[in-house]
Each structure stands twice: as structure tokens, then as C-alpha cells.
Specification:
The protein is of the alpha/beta class. It has 2 domains: 251 residues, Spore Coat Polysaccharide Biosynthesis Protein SpsA, Chain A; 47 residues, no CATH class. Helices cover 38% and strands 16% of the residues. The protein is built from 11 helices and 10 strands. A 7-stranded mixed sheet has the order 3-2-1-4-7-6-8, with helices on both faces. The longest helix is centred in the middle third of the chain and has 21 residues. The protein is globular, with a radius of gyration of 19 Å. It starts with a strand and ends with a helix.
């Protein structure tokens, strides 16, 4: 049975610590290979790992690995360096899932782990919701959205791939289809893929900083490296990265019951920074939510509160 490891980037803040604790709680509740799966937490901001461990005694004895981002990487690339450093620790499983701290597994991801070939390079993820945010400097300043991808690929001496996809929140085709360009809330990689990204990630980031210093450059780098090195990409349906956004639900014709991974990035009803804190869980659970994904999250928060903190008994 193929094994899986999960990797999450974070800053050394109390909110992030509780978000990854919430993730870990529900990961173990899945049982089987998920109960034994390694959770690697990559901490930036020049964090001292001994201090981080002292603040996170809950992880003692659990399959949790805390890794600090080297100072030179964080100082040069900031939070993007923290996210990118997830590619660098050695793999301890057949598949590695890059997750965001504001995600949680609702159900297993067995259909991926049991059908994809982990011996070969591959990337599997859900398409990004929308166009990359425009930049105000450099040769790509204020470029039209449909001109971005042809121009960007040309800068990297790449051709437009034959198979193109819509953004996952553009069902009416407002924008032209694009190459595989993924939301980073859930990205599944085979172990051999890490070697390719380690060798090429920061040179690609440096080039993007010169010509297109987008906040989304970590996402752009995945596309560019995969195309350059012929890494097969698999565009996953939204249930592997379901936003707590009713528009995302409707654009992808899903209900919360379809979810395997929830990405709670929207803060209109539940606020990710506070809803997982011991002092914030009760208020989050008592809030009246109309979004059905948030209602599902509230049930998960209640279980977490009872089992981790003895609340809401």
C-alpha cells in the first residue's frame, strides 16, 4: 500500500500552531495509513525549533516532524521561501502532499494514492481559482490576463501545452484556458518529483522576481518547472481542495458531502486565525453559518474541541 507524507509551511505563531494541530487531529481520525503518515511542519521567520517544540508539546510522541527554514533562504525569499522549502527535506513516503495550514482532510485520498504511479515524477492538484494578481513593475506590468501565459511561457522558452484548462472559478469562460496552474492548498507529488524541484525551484523564483514579481510566484513556479521538465500533471476535481466559498461549490457542481479536503481560506463567517484557538472554538461553533462548507467545519471543530481540549462536552 503506497505511503503518504503531508507537509505544511507556517510562521511560528500561536494561530498557525493550532491550525496544524487541527489538521493533525483529523489526519489521524482517518485511521489506516493516515494514522501513521508523517506530518512535516516547515517553520520560517528564523524560528528556533527548540522553542517551537516547547510551545507544541501536543506533538510529542506523534508522527510530527518540525523543520526550520535555513536563515539565508528565509531572508532572501521570505514567506515564499518557507513555502518552497517544503520540497527540500528528504521524502519518507511514496507520495508527498503539500498542504496549506488552513486545510483539513474530511475523507481519505485513497483514489489518488492507489491509482497514481509513485515511482515516476508527477504533480496532481486542483486548478487555481482565478487569474494571478497583476504586478505593477517589470515587463509584465498590467499585462492583459489572456496575454500573461503566452508571454510568460515565451520568457521561459516554453511552448503552450496542448491541453489547457479553465480557472476553477471561471465556469463561463471569461478568460482563455491556460496550462495546469494549481491552487497550492493541496498538491500531491511523487517522491521523485522532489528531486526535480530542488534543483530548479530557486532559479525559477529568481527569474520570476526579475520579470514578474507576483505574490503567486510559488504557484507559477510549479507550472513552469513541470512544463520545462516534462513532469506529468493531473488536474484534480474540487473535492480535493474545496474552498469554504459558495461560489467555488457552485462553479464545480459540488456539495460539502463530496469534500475530501476543505480549504477554509474565506473569512466571512469563520475566521481561520481564531476558530481553532481554545478560546475561539466555542464562539466559532455557536456562530450562525449559512455556508454549508462552514457548517461542516463547525461539526469538525466540535469534535476537535471535545477530544483535544475537553470543551463542548
Amino acid at each position: 500500500m503506497p505511503t503518504v507524507e503531508f507537509r505544511i509551511p507556517l510562521s511560528p505563531t500561536r494561530s498557525f500552531f493550532h491550525q496544524v494541530r487541527f489538521f493533525e487531529h483529523w489526519l489521524r481520525r482517518l485511521g489506516g495509513r493516515y494514522e501513521d503518515a508523517l506530518l512535516t511542519l516547515v517553520v520560517g521567520d528564523d524560528a528556533v525549533i527548540d522553542d517551537v517544540l516547547a510551545q507544541n508539546e501536543w506533538s510529542n510522541g506523534r508522527k510530527v516532524r518540525w523543520i526550520g527554514v535555513p536563515s539565508e533562504i528565509f531572508r532572501q525569499y521570505g514567506l515564499h521561501g518557507t513555502a518552497d522549502y517544503r520540497y527540500f527535506p528528504g521524502a519518507e513516503a511514496d507520495f508527498i502532499v503539500l498542504s496549506d495550514a488552513d486545510t483539513v482532510l474530511v475523507r481519505d485520498i485513497d483514489p489518488l494514492l492507489d491509482t497514481l504511479d509513485g515511482s515516476m515524477p508527477l504533480v496532481a492538484a486542483h486548478m487555481a481559482h482565478w487569474i494571478p494578481a497583476p504586478v505593477e513593475t517589470g515587463p509584465f506590468a498590467n499585462v492583459e490576463p489572456d496575454g500573461l501565459w503566452p508571454d510568460l511561457l515565451r520568457e521561459f522558452e516554453l511552448g503552450m501545452p496542448r491541453t489547457l484548462y479553465p480557472y476553477s472559478m471561471d465556469p463561463k469562460g471569461q478568460f482563455a484556458p491556460i496550462p495546469p496552474y494549481f491552487n497550492l492548498g493541496f498538491v500531491l507529488l511523487s517522491a521523485p518529483t522532489l528531486e526535480v524541484f530542488r534543483a530548479h525551484l530557486f532559479p525559477v523564483q529568481d527569474r520570476l522576481l526579475e520579470i514578474y514579481p507576483s505574490f503567486m510566484r510559488c504557484q507559477l513556479a510549479v507550472t513552469l518547472i513541470a512544463l520545462r521538465h516534462g513532469i506529468p500533471t493531473h488536474c484534480l476535481p474540487a473535492q480535493y481542495n474545496l474552498a469554504n466559498d459558495v461560489r467555488h461549490l457552485s462553479c464545480n457542481y459540488l456539495s460539502p458531502a463530496d469534500a475530501r479536503v476543505i480549504h477554509f481560506l474565506r473569512g466571512d463567517e469563520l475566521v481561520r486565525e481564531t476558530m481553532v484557538l481554545p478560546e475561539g472554538i466555542i464562539a466559532a461553533c455557536e456562530r450562525i453559518c449559512t455556508n454549508p462548507v462552514n457548517q461542516l467545519l463547525q461539526g469538525m471543530l466540535r469534535d476537535y474541541a471535545r477530544n483535544e481540549f475537553g470543551l463542548l462536552q
